[in-house]
Write a structure and sequence with these properties.
There is one protein chain. Helices cover about 35% and strands about 25% of the residues. A 7-stranded mixed β-sheet has the order 3-2-1-4-5-7-6, with helices on both faces. The N terminus and C terminus are likely disordered. The longest helix is centred in the N-terminal third of the chain and has 17 residues. α1 runs parallel beside α3. It has a single domain, classed as Rossmann fold (3-Layer(aba) Sandwich), CATH 3.40.50.150. It is α/β, with parallel strands linked by helices and about 230 residues long. About 40% of the residues are buried. β4, α4 and β5 form a beta-alpha-beta unit. The protein is globular. The termini are far apart. It holds the Pfam family Methyltransf_11.
Amino acid sequence: MRRRSTPVPRDAVHHPVFARFYARLSVTADLKGGVAGRREELLAGLSGRVIEIGAGNGLNFAHYPGAVSEVVAIEPERSLRQLAAGAALRAEVPVDVVPGTAEALPVKSEAFDAAVASLVLCTVRDLPRALAEIKRVLRPGGELRFFEHTLAPGRALAAAQRAADRTLWPLLFGGCHTARDTVAAIEDAGFELGVYRRFRIPDSGVQLPSSPCVLGVARRSGVVDRSAEAG
């Protein structure tokens, strides 16, 4: 039996205007921009218990394979969480939508076989802390699947991304910081990086600060380090 998400008195993230904009934009991007295919690729082959970080309006839910036994979907923004709860009811795998932030995941350690981060790591307030939390909740050997905005390899666009992040871009787009080097941050957090690839959305001549993306997989080491606990 699926649990329903429970309301909290005060949300840690509150972007109601952006939430309405994103809900429309993301559906259009899925249908016309090829993003649905990226979601399919991101989630292919997953199984067991999965935690999704920043589920948004729940567009990933329709793409989880049947071998997934449960998805715990974390979403801090109330409007998007309500939309995600509706999407969860239509999903073919059990999805539990709950409030929470990436920096303080409300779940037990080593409880999940995989974690999914989809267009969310650009928005978290503390990226190293968020990645440390993802690592904490994964079982040894568990996978992190990521589909994220990232710093462009080209000097001109990278400069434009840094400039955008210093202006109104994060305020207008739900805290999005386009110039984060996502792959480097994942490695710095201690994950073993697997296969990944870079592309642009939209895949056309249009160049936005958010166009450069990366999709790939990383793994939590199978060795459990107990030294911090011992100290």
